[in-house]
Design a protein that fits this description.
The protein is mostly helical. The chain contains 3 helices and 4 strands, in the order ββββααα. The strands form 2 sheets. Strands 1-2 form a two-stranded antiparallel sheet. The chain has a two-stranded antiparallel sheet with strand order 3-4. The radius of gyration is 41 Å and the shape is rod-shaped. It starts with a strand and ends with a helix.
Length: 146
């Protein structure tokens, strides 16, 4: 006996072996159900596809746009900009004072040169803070655009 499942109502029933390749009427709903050949082996790929579960549906609609974040700078970005500006301006002021000392008769000497180079060093040390501030802004803008 061969067990056959009706595609219409899902009812299972048995038919004699001699009816392979023919069709039999379902006792529950009356639909003609084709009887498969017993000699035909099932397709292994089809069996694997039935055995592998499908992925669950997405939790959100794929076409829905992501909400945009506010464009306000973060505390870190603001602090970087402020520190960079303070260092840069203080360094330039120090360098200008050193140049004034170097040009004066009373304070000219190696101390004035030291003040100039110290001021330029402080001004240059402020530039990375400014660069980091702008790099963070740029990266945030890119992340919000994606």
């Amino acid at each position: 006996m061969i067990e056959v499942k009706c595609p219409g109502c899902g009812e299972s029933f048995e038919v004699p072996d001699g009816l392979c390749g023919e069709s039999e009427r379902c006792p529950a709903c009356g639909l003609d159900v084709p009887i498969p050949n017993q000699s035909a082996k099932p397709d292994p790929i089809a069996l694997l596809q039935k055995a592998i579960p499908t992925a669950p549906p997405a939790l959100h609609a794929p076409n829905r746009p992501k909400p945009k974040k506010a464009e306000r700078p973060t505390v870190t970005e603001s602090a970087m900009a402020v520190f960079g500006a303070v260092f840069f301006v203080a360094g330039l002021v120090c360098a200008v004072i050193g140049v004034v000392f170097l040009l004066s008769d009373e304070y000219a000497g190696p101390g004035a040169v030291f003040i100039i180079f110290t001021g330029l060093g402080v001004a240059i040390s402020g530039l990375p803070f400014w660069a980091i501030h702008h790099a963070l802004r740029y990266l945030r803008r890119i992340a919000n655009a994606v």
